[in-house]
Amino acid sequence: MLRRNTPIQQKLMKVIMLTSGAVLLLTCSSFFAYEFVTFRQSSMRELSTLGEIIATNSTAALAFDDSTAANEILSALKAERHIVAAGVYDADGKLFSYYRASRNQTPFPTVPEADGYQFAAAYFGGYQPIVQGDKRLGTLYLKSDTGAMYERLKLYGTIALLVVALSFLLAYLLSRNLQHGITTPILALTETAKAVSDRHDYSVRAVKQVDNEVGVLTDAFNHMLTRIQEQNLALNESSAKIVAFNQRLEQRVAERTAELEASNKELESFSYSVSHDLRAPIRSIHGYGNILKEEYASVFDAEALRLIQTILRNSKRMGQLIDDLLAFSRLGRKELMRFDVSVQDIVQIIVEEQKSIEGDRPLEIKIEKLPNAFADLTTLRQVWINLVSNALKYSRDRERSIVEIGSFEKDGALIYYIKDNGAGFDMKYYDKLFGVFQRLHSQKEFEGTGVGLAIVQRIIAKHGGKIWAEAKLNEGATFYFTLSGMSSSAVAVNEN
């Protein structure tokens, strides 16, 4: 009824009008209820009095069995325009004489009922005994409509409507004049606040028009504007200093960023050069070691052969480390060629390749539905190769390697995962998991260089995604990763 955003003028007007309306409605309702009850009581008394008169006049007609006289007595009721029916019953309860107004077509009761008068929905009616001395000669039946009551109520309703209309008009005129004294200072204060808000000019001041509570509010508002103006001046001075400091800071950040980029490029170039230059000596060591093993095996004793085998094994591992380091350094310079890639096909091919490498070892690899990805095919394939080969490598000590590959959607992101039943790892060493040359198992337990997961993390980071893992020692591990781009076919799979 009174909405929160309704202007205060309209609210005051509505409050006054609604209050006046509620008072008038309650008054009129009480008046109508009182008139209805009192008029009904007076009508019943008048009908009862009329019945007594007619009953007294009808005693002679009943005593001498003169229906004509009884009809004449009843016909006198024509003067009472609200009497619609009247009847005289003899002592045996038979209708002796009756009167019926032309507008009444309802039949008379076959026998008289209990004495007394009552009020029904559309009429007053009842029965009056006709007695002579101590002897009951018969019964008088009277029926009157409620027209008189409704005519009176209609008249009162018309008067009430006029009173309500005049009262509302008077209340409207009075409220319109009185509310100006309340709302004008408030509206002036509102206009000042709006001017300050729109122009951000805190030098504006509200004019004090009254000395009541609104005047106190005006003084407080002006004091607040003064404080804000003073604080703004101080803030502007501080802002100028902050802007100058930020500019110097941004310049230093830009310089440091440029230095870091140059350092990264130099580091990548150094890593590539070192790795590339080390490959030739390592190959020479491995090659000469093979020559010693194959051509001079008969000359060397068992200890010498063991040492040569150690040289070959470590030179091979060193070569693998150099190759992985080269691959890792190339990722920093590689530009991604992203397009719609079938992850399902990539994983299926890699799994078949790994099965052929593993030979007859019992494997159970389950591949769920894998939506397409918007990614670089070459690097994404490298991710899956590393993850699948790791899952099979770290579960080779089990009777059967069980690997599950799938995907799911969470918080609007598509997440791929690979789960194995292998050796797992202790989560307290999780921060070392994706580091370069960081290993959570010894070389004797599982071969490797410790670069594979670092490469996987770097590839996924270049795709704008992230990778994480969950594991328990000797209970397996699960690796999850996301990619920033999702193909249209992946979207369709998720929606279905």
From TrEMBL:
Top-level taxon in the UniProt lineage: Bacteria
Residues spanning the membrane: 12-34, 155-174
Top EC category: transferase
UniProt domain HAMP: residue ranges: 180-233
EC identifiers of the protein: 2.7.13.3
Main subcellular location of this protein, as a coarse class: membrane
Subcellular location: Membrane
One Pfam family, short name: HisKA
GO biological process: osmosensory signaling via phosphorelay pathway
Keywords: Kinase, Membrane, Phosphoprotein, Transferase, Transmembrane, Transmembrane helix
CDD domains named in the record: HAMP, HisKA
Catalytic activity: ATP + protein L-histidine = ADP + protein N-phospho-L-histidine
InterPro entries recorded: BphY/WalK/GraS-like (IPR050351), CHASE8 (IPR033417), HAMP_dom (IPR003660), HATPase_C_sf (IPR036890), HATPase_dom (IPR003594), His_kinase_dom (IPR005467), HisK_dim/P_dom (IPR003661), HisK_dim/P_sf (IPR036097)
One Gene Ontology MF term: protein kinase activator activity
All copies of domain Histidine kinase, residue ranges: 273-487
GO cellular component labels: membrane
Record PANTHER family: BACTERIOPHYTOCHROME, TWO-COMPONENT HISTIDINE KINASE
Name of the protein in question: histidine kinase
Organism field: Chryseolinea serpens
